[in-house]
Amino acid sequence: MKTFPMFLQMAGRHVVIVGGGEQAAQKARLMLKTEALLVLVAPQLDAELAALVVDGRATHAPELTVDLMRGAALVFVATGCVGADYAAHALSKAAGALVNVVDRPALCDANTPSLVDRDPVVVAISTEGTAPVLARQIKSRMEVLLEPNLGELAALAGRLRAQVSGQIPQAQRRFFWDWVFSRAPRQAIARGALRDAARLIKDALARGETGAAQGSIALVGAGPGAADLLTLRALRLLQEADVIFYDRLVDPSILELARRDAERVFVGKEVGASSWPQERINTVIVAAAKRGKKVVRLKSGDPGIFGRVAEELDSAGAAGIAVEIVPGVTAASAACASLARGLTERGVTDRLMLATAACKPADPDPDWAAMLQPGTSLAIYMGVARAEKIVRSMEAAGIPLSLEIDIVCHASTPKERKIHCTLSDLPKMVRDGAVENPAVILVSWPKAEFSVRADFIAA
Ligand code: SAH
Hints:
This protein has 18 helices and 17 strands. By secondary structure, it is of the alpha/beta class. Helix 12 (about 280-290) packs across helix 13. It has 4 domains: about 15-110, NAD(P)-binding Rossmann-like Domain (Rossmann fold), CATH 3.40.50.720; about 160-205, no CATH class; about 215-325, Cobalt-precorrin-4 Transmethylase, domain 1, CATH 3.40.1010; about 335-459, Tetrapyrrole methylase, C-terminal domain (Methyltransferase, Cobalt-precorrin-4 Transmethylase, Domain 2, 2-Layer Sandwich). The model is unreliable at about 450-455 (pLDDT under 50). The strands form 4 sheets. The chain has a 5-stranded parallel β-sheet, sandwiched between helices. It has a 5-stranded parallel β-sheet with strand order 10-9-11-8-12, with helices on both faces. It has helices at about 20-30, 45-55, 65-70, 80-95, 130-145, 150-165, 170-180, 185-190, 195-205, 230-240, 250-255, 280-290, 310-320, 330-340, 370, 385-395, 425-430, 450-459; strands spanning about 15-20, 35-40, 60, 75, 100, 115-120, 120-125, 215-220, 245, 265, 295-300, 325, 350-355, 375-380, 405-410, 415-420, 440-445.
């Protein structure tokens, strides 16, 4: 290492910024994150810097002197003029200050790192100037990994530190903090619920729990396929999971994003096989959480849309295990995005129906006439195998088979296919093998065509 990272104490110290333009303002913005007192040195300050002086956030000195810099935590030089930069650098050295001259690496004692700021949690990244693009990439990854309000949890932990030390024996403290920063309190913070996090921690302390073996379950939406349609929260949970139970429709590229040593268990139903009935899935995910594992139950699209979450929620609830649901991009949304149109259109389709053609075996067939009326956009999930039946019952219900439909197969993935036809053509498209599973069938019945149905019924 040519440079060594240190975190400088800034409270009550002063930082001198030499220069009155944009570059100086950039350094001022950075230093305003700290509790340092800013001294702005320039004959003239731009409007932003002048406002800092007016607001009492900084003081202004028109000329640089050695005295101004004595005892400064840092001196930044950004005059925009070579001669002035060198002169200010020489004066700073004479004052014994740590100096950074913007864009002149040879004159820098210290460099400002790339920051991921979750104050009081701060990640500083440096490549010693060798690879700024890499530094930016690392920063982007850290920004994803650390929830926006993670600092609030750290600050809360700081406030509770003494109480935890007083109450939990040293040997178990690490387990307790591990629980705080990776389980329910951390999940509460990820939802933005600081108060819930505080309550969870205080309740655990009151009950004398050390958090050694508490598992959790997250029902996570994997989206329609494309890995970059995953939410940031889903990505974070995947990276924290000890074990991941995933479905057949979850794209392998998404599992790649999990921790290398996380256990991955396929619990999908291969076509024709039923090795993983729902009750068995419920049992294994609860059993893993009971063993203290962080369980991610990864489901395609949005877990709450035809994803049988109720059964998994009930089993986890009955076992007293904390469950979190992470929404995802549902297939119908992805399909419409691929068609470059909206799921609804003002004045044309102002009602949206998401329906499955695969109901419980004992249930009556879907009532298409009740769902599909003028002004409706209907997305049918799991409809391909039942296409013929759907169209026949729509016909019997008086729905015009001349309605135009879109079928989107493998939406958002490299295998994506789009078919545009009429309702009457749907069974033939399926018979001819044009439609591949998984596919969403989108039926639109525009408002303006209300008369079509009336004519049809009259005929
Ligand atoms: N929870 C999922 C739906 C699960 S049901 C979601 O919100 O998307 C499974 C059905 O979803 C499939 O039969 C198909 O109709 C649809 N589906 C899932 N992924 C799809 C994709 N990439 N393209 C088209 N349809 C998809």
